Amino acid sequence: MNHKKRLKVVVIGGGSSYTPELVEGLIKRRHELPIKDLYLVDIESGREKLEIVGALAKRMVEKAGADIRIHLTMDRAEAIRDADFVTTQLRVGQLEARGRDERIPLKYNRIGQETTGAGGFAKALRTIPVILDICKEMEQLAPDAYLLNFTNPAGIVTEAALKYSKIRTIGLCNLPIGIKMQIGEFYGVEASRVDIEMIGINHLNWTTRILIDGVDVSESFLDKAAGAKGLTMKNISDLEWDGQFLQSLGALPCSYHRYFYMKDAMLAEQLEDLETQGTRADVVKQVEAELFELYKDPNLAIKPPQLEQRGGAYYSEVAVNLMTSIYNNKKDIQTVNVRNNGIIPFLPDEVSVEVNSIIDADGAHPIQLGKQVGPEIRGLLQLVKAYEELTVEAAVHGDLKAALQALTIHPLVGDAEIAQSILNDILEQNREYLPQFQS
Amino acid sequence: MNHKKRLKVVVIGGGSSYTPELVEGLIKRRHELPIKDLYLVDIESGREKLEIVGALAKRMVEKAGADIRIHLTMDRAEAIRDADFVTTQLRVGQLEARGRDERIPLKYNRIGQETTGAGGFAKALRTIPVILDICKEMEQLAPDAYLLNFTNPAGIVTEAALKYSKIRTIGLCNLPIGIKMQIGEFYGVEASRVDIEMIGINHLNWTTRILIDGVDVSESFLDKAAGAKGLTMKNISDLEWDGQFLQSLGALPCSYHRYFYMKDAMLAEQLEDLETQGTRADVVKQVEAELFELYKDPNLAIKPPQLEQRGGAYYSEVAVNLMTSIYNNKKDIQTVNVRNNGIIPFLPDEVSVEVNSIIDADGAHPIQLGKQVGPEIRGLLQLVKAYEELTVEAAVHGDLKAALQALTIHPLVGDAEIAQSILNDILEQNREYLPQFQS
Amino acid sequence: MNHKKRLKVVVIGGGSSYTPELVEGLIKRRHELPIKDLYLVDIESGREKLEIVGALAKRMVEKAGADIRIHLTMDRAEAIRDADFVTTQLRVGQLEARGRDERIPLKYNRIGQETTGAGGFAKALRTIPVILDICKEMEQLAPDAYLLNFTNPAGIVTEAALKYSKIRTIGLCNLPIGIKMQIGEFYGVEASRVDIEMIGINHLNWTTRILIDGVDVSESFLDKAAGAKGLTMKNISDLEWDGQFLQSLGALPCSYHRYFYMKDAMLAEQLEDLETQGTRADVVKQVEAELFELYKDPNLAIKPPQLEQRGGAYYSEVAVNLMTSIYNNKKDIQTVNVRNNGIIPFLPDEVSVEVNSIIDADGAHPIQLGKQVGPEIRGLLQLVKAYEELTVEAAVHGDLKAALQALTIHPLVGDAEIAQSILNDILEQNREYLPQFQS
Amino acid sequence: MNHKKRLKVVVIGGGSSYTPELVEGLIKRRHELPIKDLYLVDIESGREKLEIVGALAKRMVEKAGADIRIHLTMDRAEAIRDADFVTTQLRVGQLEARGRDERIPLKYNRIGQETTGAGGFAKALRTIPVILDICKEMEQLAPDAYLLNFTNPAGIVTEAALKYSKIRTIGLCNLPIGIKMQIGEFYGVEASRVDIEMIGINHLNWTTRILIDGVDVSESFLDKAAGAKGLTMKNISDLEWDGQFLQSLGALPCSYHRYFYMKDAMLAEQLEDLETQGTRADVVKQVEAELFELYKDPNLAIKPPQLEQRGGAYYSEVAVNLMTSIYNNKKDIQTVNVRNNGIIPFLPDEVSVEVNSIIDADGAHPIQLGKQVGPEIRGLLQLVKAYEELTVEAAVHGDLKAALQALTIHPLVGDAEIAQSILNDILEQNREYLPQFQS
């Protein structure tokens, strides 16, 4: 990437409530990352939100005196043409679809979650065709651009793009940086002094090494982490990790691991929540409505602090860090989703993994893992990755066999009959978003 | 192995109700497999059964006019000295322990099964120390003998012997030959005309190819197998396989797969059975009592036909086939448990797998798989093998961390808190059989 | 393969002087391998030889009273239509081309050999396009037939067919059976009592295990083999192996290994022979001329004993063994060239290797190696296989870059400038046989 | 590594003529790398040189006003105690031994070179026992220190330390940085703007990617590099690379590749030089003598410019860069020799490779290769690595079998009989330095 030129950045799903966070980050770092044009793209049904968010973005830019032109458009191809970075934060089917994703599994006594299990599977089926369409447009109109994919399930969606397109795609998530931040807080040191090594895939990622100023504190950390509050994401129940369990695992699980390691308790909680407050989608819908009310205020010209409740902490930082390091050939280390290619030796080469990588003008280059893991991590990771591979095949080819097997083997389903019932419900309730299965 | 000499064969757990089946097989094939001395070994608490079974064995040999000397002994070392083949069919803790293995998981709403899940895990913990003791004695007293391990969980126990002893160990199970027989019946042809290729591990083994007279009929078979009765073991509920599921899997699962693919229905059935008839151990106890009553009859000098109800069909055939092929350097194909060494490329080299192998005087040599499998089989196999590796470590070293992780990741447990509770119960209820955890 | 039907067998290069050997074998084994039609195919310029050999073949069949119809034809496609087995023993460019292959490298002080080094490389360039043409015809006219490739360099030619055609191809060579025979003679036992395990590729194959009646005698063999005469092929100088060298290698090299391990002495011998008697091609030309004189004799109706001097001992046995085992679903062990697929773990999956395999109606299935080898074998094997992979690419695509690199890295060339000179000469002198390089 | 403390650095072979270069570097970078004590260690026979060099070092430090204490000692253990970094630049047997290493192979018409081929092999046999002794002392006296090994053959020596000691060892060479510098000059840009990716092992390293300011210019570079002078090391003949050859290789070979790719020409040159000027050792001996004369000058207090003729350009920079990045947890990229562990997927895990790595307080962490290589590079690399593995075994265990096989398969020997003769000469002429072979 020629680091002299000023950039064209495209945000697909630009009408998202997260956009002000991203805009704030772009403004802050504009001297390192000189954006000329920022395209916020959305679809017709999202026009209203796009206009609200877009107006706020323009006010933010103006107030900051930043020389960034904001463009609002429904013409995705036009936006993509000659872009340098395309980021995706779209949500096919909106929160209504998410609500269905969360409810269907619960009907069969299975965890209902947006990004993993049967819920994440449904989201992948809806999302992958759209992402591959974007890739195709990029191949035509911006073949050298980077696709920075934030759209969940980010690991699966990124894997689909890596397997079925030549566009340089990097999958992003705020979870790794979040863990680093939390560990910094935990030790009372700045995050910049913390290094962590993760092994795994998006939302199923074990932190195997923790270093403060380059000194390995992993072992003592596990003692301390047992029972500690705070080591989780905003949107996931903050159940404590049992000390003996952490010791036996020898690594810090991520917050989404609760669905796997505390399956019974998490399911019980979800079923109870369903009765009392509805699904997480219902909660988020409320939060979003309130945010958009705020965004409409013509006097608002900064990111409103309430956005931080929404769950996307560090989202902007992750996106801007990555673009900045690519643009400036920085060669710093970030944890991103890339093609495995042997870095996790017990997973296939062509799948996506989430690991520490050097970021330079040429993209993301994974770093060899410093710590090997045992069967306790290997086995679960292999199974969930197998589920992901099947999900990619199901989503790309409309392959019902792969779909049924994907759900059957997922640890949060784990039964062929239940898998078939859930699959039937998903196909039925998402008909309009699943063209690949219509034939 | 010098095929001129007459053989010394040792049966550890010789007081088992299965022994008459083995003796019958040895008598039938004595011209190919000239046994001079057959040692039936048991422990003091099994003396009565050993004497009953041993007396029957002597009557059988005499009636057949076979020149085989039967020895009954509690002195295991003496039996092992200079042996050619040592077979193990022991059951540490007898059926009482099995009953506990089946009940503990059910208490936590988990499948309670003798060889897989938490039940099989408990059995492995009890059994592996005894098998490794036998290996040590063999290293001293019969270093060139083969250990033919039938003791369940046969894959895990064999893996422990392969990893922690230099004795040439081959793990055996009657399931593969049973599938071949069933397919023969299914097609109305003799089993000798049927060839099958399996991928997997003991009791988790997918039949990926079926050939009749060398012609591949795999695809048409899957159509026909859907809903067919009879494709299961005597001791496993005969739930039908769904046709769409079989097609999506692209292989014939083994009967134990019902615990994985039909988990909910199997659990419901087990919980109902528990109320009405007790565990499978309770049923077997009754059958065994009846068998021993029969065995006592001084006029009985053949294997009584009632033994075939017991569930160990082909057990004798499997054992005798293997010994015969080794002794005669036959180079025929049998499906046995051996060190993987790359045959299943996505499993570690040093684990046990159950695959087609050439049997010759030098042992068992796996044959390259002719059909590759996809993530649907790979993922589940990798996870369960990871569980098995952890179980071996737990059993050999009394490693509580490995034990907790083994149970946590097993698909039939799948929750760390439940795993801890089950583990506590297992350790508590098996105290006398788990010396490796007393320290 | 339906073992009831009578077979159609096609011999491409049917006018070869070896054909009577094959015909003799087919007559002998006709009760196991019921051939109805035997097609001997050749090209126009070989018509005379074909007619001489064909007439002899007909007399042989008649004399034996065998019900085999011999067909002589220049219409390859017609011969291939509906065939069951197609064997190739063709020689593109005849012995004249071989003579050039042997002379060119000698000009640059490099070993000149028919099947390895620069000579084998030239032969591969000429042969592979013809073999792939045959494959294409088979895909159209006999898609289920087996291609049994004898044409040298057999490993490289087979690899090309395996990579670039879906026809089931097995590469054959008489070297493995020859080693088995020699070891039998060496020990004074019948070859049927000898088992050997090889690791390697065609004409670069180490015998790592030797068993007599299933008993491993490998170690004592190496002591005895040092300095022994007779462990070589007819066409290769019978230099003795040094005892210390054999011990340090821990395996028996094949006769072609002399070009690698005794490079200086072999080159000196070749250069001397060149002055005194010409190349090996010149010698063979003389032998062939004499053979064809014999074949013309209308009273000759058996394979003349002089053919055995020609160097192709066991050639017929190898071909007939393979066809018989496929036809009868025999499941016996033969050493053939097949796709690696992990059997030699340090070579790529998709290359050809020469290893023990089970032969059944479904083809050849490699058996896991019982002995691992060290860097001394691994390194040389990897390098020569890399050369072979490059040669396949050069031959299939007319790729000059691959061609130059192939020759450069071959241990019998090992210099880029020399490689370029040799390559220029090869392209120049084989212009009419290398259509893939004309563009 | 605690980056607050001041450091103790040990230079084994401190009497080397290179030492002033290192001292200069340490002085320049002292604000980043605060050394308190610098130990120059040598053996008794090197006392005079050590005292000359040490006196110069002290004058240099004093003149620069640097707060570094220089210690001269023959007590290696005392020097090592509590060290932070130990660097090795020793030469067992001095230049006399090097001269013999260069002459022996030439006697048999083989390349005689200090670090590769039979010469490098001899040097490895002498050096590895000394390095492993140093490792043992470090395990006792400075177990957390880093061993930075410069001693040639650096890849083999480092591999021995990685395999047979737990000391954290990193192998260093000035060749990678030299290539980067040359490419910078070639393009007329500062080296800091150049990134290169190498695949290979020490002194057999292909530059597969070249980026200027993060932009990949690899393809155009190869066009331009053909025939260019300057892309070599001081001590290696500057023969030009042929353009077609470079294109066919698709990578820039390193200067030592001339021994492999231009074997005939290089050998001819060596044989001619031997007649006219002696071996390279003879030349170096003269240069060294002159340098030490300069060093003696009590008025000299800087590194004399004549040292740059010696061939060790950037040596100091490489050493100081590495220490600085470890001390400051810098996470920058350097090309060093480390355990492979899958980074070069076709080499064993446990061997040393020379690849781009992140350097931080925890050591060197290889980065995934961005470009895969074909058989042309793979095959040669695998063979030479196999030679290196055998050499390590020979050197550590005094294993004559491994020694003979190592030399036999090395492309610069390639004949068993010659290998045996060379080996005999090496053992004979190095008797006093090869205790591992005396038994």
UniProtKB/TrEMBL annotation, chains A, B, C, D:
<dbReference type="InterPro" id="IPR019802">
    <property type="entry name" value="GlycHydrolase_4_CS"/>
</dbReference>
<feature type="binding site">
    <location>
        <position position="98"/>
    </location>
    <ligand>
        <name>substrate</name>
    </ligand>
</feature>
<dbReference type="InterPro" id="IPR022616">
    <property type="entry name" value="Glyco_hydro_4_C"/>
</dbReference>
<comment type="similarity">
    <text>Belongs to the glycosyl hydrolase 4 family.</text>
</comment>
<dbReference type="Pfam" id="PF02056">
    <property type="entry name" value="Glyco_hydro_4"/>
</dbReference>
<feature type="site" description="Increases basicity of active site Tyr">
    <location>
        <position position="114"/>
    </location>
</feature>
<keyword id="KW-0326">Glycosidase</keyword>
<dbReference type="Pfam" id="PF11975">
    <property type="entry name" value="Glyco_hydro_4C"/>
</dbReference>
<feature type="domain" description="Glycosyl hydrolase family 4 C-terminal">
    <location>
        <begin position="199"/>
        <end position="413"/>
    </location>
</feature>
<dbReference type="GO" id="GO:0004553">
    <property type="term" value="F:hydrolase activity, hydrolyzing O-glycosyl compounds"/>
</dbReference>
<dbReference type="GO" id="GO:0016616">
    <property type="term" value="F:oxidoreductase activity, acting on the CH-OH group of donors, NAD or NADP as acceptor"/>
</dbReference>
<feature type="binding site">
    <location>
        <position position="203"/>
    </location>
    <ligand>
        <name>Mn(2+)</name>
    </ligand>
</feature>
<dbReference type="GO" id="GO:0005975">
    <property type="term" value="P:carbohydrate metabolic process"/>
</dbReference>
<dbReference type="InterPro" id="IPR001088">
    <property type="entry name" value="Glyco_hydro_4"/>
</dbReference>
<keyword id="KW-0520">NAD</keyword>
<dbReference type="GO" id="GO:0046872">
    <property type="term" value="F:metal ion binding"/>
</dbReference>
<keyword id="KW-0479">Metal-binding</keyword>
<dbReference type="InterPro" id="IPR015955">
    <property type="entry name" value="Lactate_DH/Glyco_Ohase_4_C"/>
</dbReference>
<keyword id="KW-0533">Nickel</keyword>
<dbReference type="InterPro" id="IPR036291">
    <property type="entry name" value="NAD(P)-bd_dom_sf"/>
</dbReference>
<keyword id="KW-0170">Cobalt</keyword>
<keyword id="KW-0378">Hydrolase</keyword>
<keyword id="KW-0408">Iron</keyword>
<keyword id="KW-0464">Manganese</keyword>
<protein>
    <submittedName>
        <fullName>6-phospho-beta-glucosidase</fullName>
    </submittedName>
</protein>
<feature type="binding site">
    <location>
        <position position="173"/>
    </location>
    <ligand>
        <name>Mn(2+)</name>
    </ligand>
</feature>
<feature type="binding site">
    <location>
        <position position="152"/>
    </location>
    <ligand>
        <name>substrate</name>
    </ligand>
</feature>
